[in-house]
Specification:
The structure holds 2 protein chains of 2 kinds.
Chain A (H helix, E strand, L loop, with lengths): L5 H25 L16 H23 L9 H9 L1 H23 L2 H17 L10 H25 L6
Chain B lengths: L1 H14 L2 H19 L5 H12 L4 H26 L8 H12 L3 H34 L4 H19 L4 H16 L1 E2 L6 E2 L5 H4 L4 H19 L17 H6 L1 H16 L5 H15 L11 H25 L5 H12 L8 H4 L1 H22 L3 H5 L6 H18 L4 H19 L5 H23 L11 H15 L3 H22 L1
Antiparallel strand pairs in B: 1-2
The chains are: A mainly alpha, B mainly alpha.
Chain lengths: ~170, ~500
């Protein structure tokens, strides 16, 4: 992140952290004290979370004061800046990687058999990043074949090693 | 002393069999490759290897993990020298002089110096590990709940302070966030599930390995994929063996970096990257060839690589004696030891007295293997760096996923890894260090139990927390760490220093 944007990010994070600390404090007060069981009041579960809630609020407020001093409250969000960020090459690469990994890890893995899910993930990851739509398909046969080969090798290899060597019950 | 040497000798002899030596060789080589590849860190390598070794006998598993750890910290120097991209964060300082040396056509020499520096650093750290662990272990036997509570606070504060040199506040926030993560799930005194919101999965708590694989592995994948393409420089690799004259000329730097690396390793949560930077900085300040630093200084390269590898055995000192990790990979090693039924901590000298010396022997074997493998097959291994990230990263993510899943066979752990990966990514982008968070996750349970136990013992009185000698020392360190970063305090110290100088000068007239 660029240094000039850091106070803005800190301003938003500080508000989030202070509110988070408050929520943790409130939740820790709501935790049971087991009075009916004769539990020592200094051993109740809410003590440390409550203390952490207070610490978060203090640290959040310090961060807030500092970011306000650096004029971090002037967020200055406009459509052009957001558009430029989204069209940036590195943002695109980040978002595509995040999307592929989340879809594989959270959704596909529990719905498809492990080797198929893994093979599809590896293939699409390589294919999406290496395939150039402007070039002809014929000139990119090698890219597709390499992606396919790596997908088969990775999914087959990991499945065999974990299922038969480490005896893991795969997802 | 003699007893220690005998125990170390026995431990070393038990590992000198073909099967263990084979394990040492392949795991160190794999560690070097993992370290070489930008995006695969030592922490991630050790975490993934934990999942691959959890069915082995404890000694074999820990041996393989130690080899992976030492190999990876060393291996990162290759990409630092050849790509100007540190293979692991520990090798960031190596780039400064390693890459310029490679640009001058001395890549082989740079690799040789890095290997020798790493070897000597590790050897020095091993000596310190063997000497100080039993000593600290004996002191740790005097620790009670009060001291453990302050130790945890000290760990978070110093780790936050050193891993976020630009802004310690962010380091402390990251550390306390880690402590909060450790609060999630069933607590140890009354079995109450905190912050679980009725979920059975969350009430089991956030496991260390998936969260670490997330913040160090998945977030690294996202960072690597975001960066522009890396270019491998075309440098001839000829002579790899370093010149003895270079080593003799810089013996002071090597020794100093060894001491710095080991001490920084022993500080909770502060890892190899800081050790390398501090060693490098000290070397530059005391060098007679200051002008060469950053332009291909052999002394700078030696300082960085000696410092980061000396940190590895140093980081094992608090792991074994206090069950507090000295670095992020050491945190995974600690978790792996618990998985294998070995309980490091103050009672280790009573429960597993031989284990300390076994770890010393393992570290020595890994160091020797690293030195031999580091000086051989250099040209062949450099080819690994030509693998494009688009082909490497999906494989790494598959390993992150299966590694998180394999230990408990729970899909929930995969979700934890993904969520922590995203959190870790944004923490990095916003300049919050992730190491204090991991330390917080580890220390959370210890802090929670010991604070409550101490409060029960004192019936809620706080005074006893401040009156015990070891507690007082820890409190003093905590206060100095916090106020030491305040501008007004530093200004005050500088004014006081000038006044003192003035007084002495006046007296000498």
């Amino acid at each position: 992140m660029q240094d000039r944007n850091m106070p803005k990010a800190d301003f938003v994070a500080a508000i989030g952290l202070t509110l988070f600390g408050l929520a943790v404090l409130v939740r820790s007060f709501e935790m049971p004290r087991f009075e009916s069981l004769g539990v020592n009041p200094y051993s109740v579960p809410g003590i440390v979370p409550g203390l952490l809630g207070v610490i978060f609020m203090i640290l959040g407020l310090i961060l807030l004061l500092r970011s306000v001093n650096k004029k971090g409250y002037k967020l200055g969000l406009d459509a052009t800046a957001v558009k430029a960020y989204l069209l940036d090459d590195s943002t695109k690469r980040f978002l595509i990687s995040l999307f592929l990994c989340v879809v594989y890890g959270i959704f596909v893995l529990r719905r498809l058999a492990y080797p198929i899910a893994t093979g599809l993930f590896v293939f699409f990851f390589i294919f999406i990043f290496e395939f150039r739509p402007r070039k002809s398909m014929a000139s990119q046969k090698r890219t597709v074949l390499t992606a396919l080969l790596e997908a088969v090798l990775v999914s087959g290899g990991v499945t065999l090693v974990f299922r038969y060597l480490f005896l893991v019950d795969l997802p | 002393m003699i007893e220690g040497i005998v125990r170390f000798g026995n431990a070393l002899l038990t590992f000198l069999n073909p099967w263990d030596l084979f394990n040492v060789l392949w795991s160190t080589q794999l560690g070097i490759i993992v370290g070489m590849l930008p995006g695969l860190t030592a922490t991630m390598g050790v975490a993934l290897m934990t999942t691959l070794t959890y069915k082995m006998a404890p000694e074999n598993a820990v041996l393989i993990l130690m080899c992976m750890y030492i190999g990876a910290i060393y291996g990162g120097s290759r990409s630092a020298i050849l790509l100007n991209i540190p293979g692991t964060p520990a090798n960031a300082a190596t780039c400064l002089d390693g890459h310029p040396l490679a640009m001058q056509g001395k890549a082989g020499e740079a690799i040789g110096l890095a290997t020798t520096g790493s070897f000597l650093g590790s050897l020095f750290g091993i000596l310190m590990l063997a000497f100080f662990t039993p000593l600290i272990g004996t002191i740790a036997l005097k620790f009670e709940s009060f001291e453990f509570f302050w130790l945890c606070v000290f760990g978070i504060i110093i780790c936050g302070n050193l891993t976020a040199p630009k802004d310690p506040l962010k380091g402390w926030i990251a550390g306390f966030f880690g402590l909060f993560i450790a609060m999630i799930g069933m607590e140890g005194m009354h079995a109450y599930a905190r912050f679980s919101f009725g979920s059975v999965e969350i009430s089991g708590g956030i496991a260390l390995i998936p969260s670490m694989v997330g913040v160090f592995g998945f977030s690294e994948i996202l960072m690597i994929m975001k960066q522009p393409k890396l270019e491998l420089i075309d440098s001839r690799i000829d002579r790899v063996f370093p010149q003895i004259s270079d080593l003799l000329r810089y013996w002071r730097t090597i020794l100093r970096s060894g001491v710095i690396g080991t001490i920084i390793g022993a500080i909770p949560g502060v890892g190899e990257d800081i050790a390398a930077w501090v060693s490098y900085d000290f070397a530059r300040r005391s060098s007679k060839e200051k002008e060469k630093f950053g332009k291909g200084s052999k002394e700078g390269l030696l300082a960085a690589e000696t410092g980061n590898n000396a940190c590895v055995p140093g980081a094992m000192i608090p792991v074994l004696s206090l069950a507090v990790p000295g670095s992020a990979p050491a945190a995974v090693l600690l978790a792996a030891m618990f998985i294998h039924g070995v309980r490091p901590g103050p009672l280790i000298m009573i429960e597993f007295p031989d284990f300390i010396y076994q770890v010393v022997a393992m570290t020595l074997l890994a160091t020797v293997a690293m030195f031999i493998l580091g000086l051989s097959m250099v040209r062949l291994l450099v080819k690994v760096l030509t693998i494009p990230r688009e082909k490497m990263m999906p494989f790494v993510f598959v390993l992150c996923t299966i590694g998180s899943y394999a230990i408990s066979s729970r899909m929930f752990d995969v979700y934890v890894m993904v969520v922590f990966g995203i959190i870790g990514y944004y923490m990095r982008v916003m300049e919050y260090p992730v190491a204090p968070t991991v330390l917080g996750i580890i220390l959370g349970d210890l802090l929670d139990k010991n604070l409550r136990r101490a409060l029960v013992l004192t019936d809620g009185a706080i005074i006893p927390f401040f009156t015990r000698p070891i507690s007082l020392v820890l409190i003093l360190f905590i206060v100095l760490t916090i106020v030491g970063r305040m501008k007004s305090f530093r200004r005050g110290v500088s004014v006081a220093g000038k006044e003192l100088k003035g007084i002495f000068r006046r007296r000498s007239y």
